[in-house]
């Protein structure tokens, strides 16, 4: 096992106390940092069973290198982000170019270009199953309106955080989520998961605490389920609400078992997004600890931790995350997330002024 480059989860208290940023900027920046931090923590454990995670790492408490035989990210250095963060940045740039709108043809082309870049880099972290099927359909002549009609996985949810930052709560948010989902995840299930994350982030940026952000996520998940095409699958919102009292009654170890064995950590939205929401509820006061738990679960750990981190970061702000880990993220991945947050927040204010 590689030696972690970060301290234990309690180090969240060591976050920066330097010049106080504007609260909305702090929260927008926090959403992107939480996304990237969770993503990087889950990078070495993604697609591994819980037993394999325990054998190799015990419990994730910080950034670790991926093993040479890691099935998706072989040999990636500690602190590296995956497709969750990279596609979220792609969505952010498209939103900025489109002044809040995403052209579906441009989005499809950008996803194809992104995958080719990953192939050239020797990565196996390529397009997910729903996105790959949609792009293949487009290349075979399907329209952008048709390509995503079977997309039920969490790809739309993992990359939607910039939509939540750029769009204030209200009537424009769900259409923006649908627009960011439709090329690859144009189903009620795929849109529902994405709407939950976007609404929670948007509420957090506006000042909501974790409880209010989760309420917004549930309401948006219900609304999102009525969009797109129907597919068989359990409701994101109703599964979360049904499982919440059971999860709250468990101790920490039993809670982690419950997420892995009962809720699920697969790429399916009704598993991974629900697990992320339950993690946010439980670790609402200790964000970094929650992300380490997510990264230790097994399954689609990078996405579960990333979307939980986005919600927690939006509610707590960038100061929830330790300076050393933020520096590692930016150094290893060449990220400028504060600048991106500033640009998305400016777009949010322009959007708000038009409503």
Automatic annotation (TrEMBL):
InterPro entries hit by this protein: ADP-ribosylglycohydrolase, Ribosyl_crysJ1, Ribosyl_crysJ1_sf
Record's keyword annotation contains Magnesium: yes
Annotated region described as Disordered, given as residue ranges: 1-25
Gene3D superfamilies according to UniProt: ADP-ribosylation/Crystallin J1
Keyword Magnesium set for record: yes
Binding site for Mg(2+) 1: 82-84, 300, 303
Cofactor: Mg(2+)
Keywords of the record: Hydrolase, Magnesium, Metal-binding
One Pfam family linked to the record: ADP_ribosyl_GH
Biased composition (Low complexity): 1-19
Residues the record lists as binding Mg(2+) 2: 302
MF-aspect GO terms: hydrolase activity; metal ion binding
Cofactor note: Binds 2 magnesium ions per subunit.
Family: Belongs to the ADP-ribosylglycohydrolase family.
Protein's name in the database: ADP-ribosylglycohydrolase
């Amino acid at each position: 096992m590689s030696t972690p480059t970060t301290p234990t989860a309690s180090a969240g208290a060591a976050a920066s106390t330097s010049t106080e940023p504007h609260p909305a900027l702090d929260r927008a920046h926090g959403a992107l940092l939480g996304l990237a931090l969770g993503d990087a923590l889950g990078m070495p454990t993604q697609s591994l069973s819980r037993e394999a995670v325990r054998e190799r790492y015990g419990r994730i408490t910080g950034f670790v290198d991926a093993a040479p035989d890691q099935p998706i990210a072989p040999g990636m250095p500690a602190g590296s982000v995956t497709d969750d963060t990279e596609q979220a940045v792609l969505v952010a740039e498209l939103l900025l170019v489109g002044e809040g709108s995403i052209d579906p043809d441009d989005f499809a082309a950008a996803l194809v270009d992104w995958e080719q870049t990953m192939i050239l880099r020797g990565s196996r972290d390529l397009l997910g199953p729903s996105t790959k099927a949609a792009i293949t359909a487009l290349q075979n002549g399907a329209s952008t309106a048709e390509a995503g009609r079977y997309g039920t996985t969490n790809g739309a949810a993992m990359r939607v955080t910039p939509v939540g930052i750029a769009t204030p709560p209200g009537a424009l948010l769900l259409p923006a989520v649908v627009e960011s989902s439709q090329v690859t995840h144009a189903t009620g299930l795929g849109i529902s998961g994405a709407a939950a994350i976007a609404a929670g982030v948007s509420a957090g940026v506006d000042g909501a605490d974790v409880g209010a952000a989760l309420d917004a996520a549930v309401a948006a998940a219900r609304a999102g389920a009525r969009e797109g095409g129907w597919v068989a699958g359990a409701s994101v919102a109703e599964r979360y609400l049904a499982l919440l009292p059971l999860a709250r009654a468990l101790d920490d170890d039993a809670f982690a078992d419950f997420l892995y064995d009962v809720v699920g950590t697969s790429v399916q939205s009704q598993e991974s997004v629900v697990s992320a929401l339950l993690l946010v509820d439980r670790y609402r006061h200790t964000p970094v600890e929650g992300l380490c738990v997510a990264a230790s679960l097994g399954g689609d750990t990078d996405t579960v931790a990333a979307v939980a981190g986005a919600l927690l970061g939006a509610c707590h702000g960038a100061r929830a995350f330790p300076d050393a880990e933020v520096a590692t993220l930016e150094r290893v991945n060449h990220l400028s997330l504060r600048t991106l947050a500033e640009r998305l927040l400016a777009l949010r204010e322009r959007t708000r002024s038009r409503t």
